[in-house]
Design a protein that fits this description.
- This protein is mainly alpha-helical.
- The chain is elongated.
- The protein starts with a helix and ends in an 8-residue tail after the last helix.
Length: about 280
């Protein structure tokens, strides 16, 4: 969310110290919009390394093409994020070893296990694997100005991918994911990946039956990349972060307004201060 907001809003949005606050402001507005719609009992923001070491050990090219250096004006906003968002009454969870997606998925699963419902806000379609009757993915599209996040449940995943949510890691392994540096099986696109998974039920089933595949190019692609495909699935599968279900905690509107005003976000502060004006900027 911070990266998306940073590039979506001009860096002329600056705090009292003259430094950009566009990422913090934009992220706050994205989250506040969904709070106004859904009124969650608690909000958790998750942070972690861009590429967990266990994933790069499985496949060194994972995330290799992503720009290593964070933009100069964004780094300080990442550093200020915890203090700023905790002032809203939100929990900020971090991990040194697991990625933010692992934390997000685990929090959603804990809520579902307790009989609650979780809303998982993300711009990463890999998180579609979490969708079930108690977990809805709030997918934030790039450039979706003013429209809010798109609600994605199991039916929407099946409509988009032609498979159930739990098979999303298998699907990613076969189709590949250029944004993560995963090439998938050579020549296998989304339609073929979905077809194979519907036929054989899992990546393991696909690989077990690869030798019987009548299409020579596909047979060769599956057999030649078997070890890599298994690694891709493990990379795409979320790991349990060992976190506990957060306690009920309402948004602290007054604390949020103070934090916003201290950083020069006066329009946001005004909206937060008035119950009738809590619409995000």
């Amino acid at each position: 969310m911070l990266f998306r907001a940073f590039y979506a809003l001009p860096d002329s949005i600056r705090g009292v110290d003259g430094k950009p606050v566009n990422a913090l402001l934009g992220t706050a507005n994205l989250i506040l919009r969904e709070i106004e719609i859904h009124a969650p009992r608690a909000v958790v923001l998750c942070f972690g390394p861009d590429a967990a070491s266990y994933r790069t050990e499985l496949y060194p090219a994972y995330h290799a093409e992503r720009e290593a250096a964070m933009p100069e004006d964004l780094a300080p906003q990442f550093g200020a994020a915890r203090e700023f968002f905790e002032a809203f009454g939100w929990t900020v969870a971090t991990s040194a070893d697991l990625e933010a997606d692992d934390l997000l998925g685990t929090y959603a699963r804990r809520e579902a296990e307790a009989g609650g419902e979780a809303l998982l806000m993300t711009g990463d379609r890999d998180m579609y694997q979490c969708a079930d009757e108690r977990v809805t993915v709030l997918y934030v599209k790039t450039g979706g100005k003013g429209r809010g996040a798109e609600e994605v449940g199991p039916a929407e995943v099946r409509e988009r991918y032609g498979i159930d949510p739990e098979l999303v890691p298998d699907f990613i392994a076969l189709r590949g994911d250029p944004s993560d540096g995963l090439p998938g099986a050579k020549g296998v696109g989304p339609k073929t990946a979905a077809e194979l998974l519907r036929r054989y039920g899992s990546l393991e089933g696909v690989l077990a039956n690869a030798i019987r595949e009548r299409r020579p190019a596909l047979r060769g692609a599956l057999l030649d990349a078997e070890d890599d495909l298994r690694a891709f699935k493990e990379i795409a599968t979320l790991r349990d972060a060992g976190v506990e279900r957060p306690p009920d905690r309402e948004t602290d509107w007054a604390g949020a307004a103070t934090a916003a005003r201290e950083r020069g976000m006066n329009r946001l502060a005004e909206r937060l201060e008035g119950p009738s004006e809590r619409e995000p900027a």
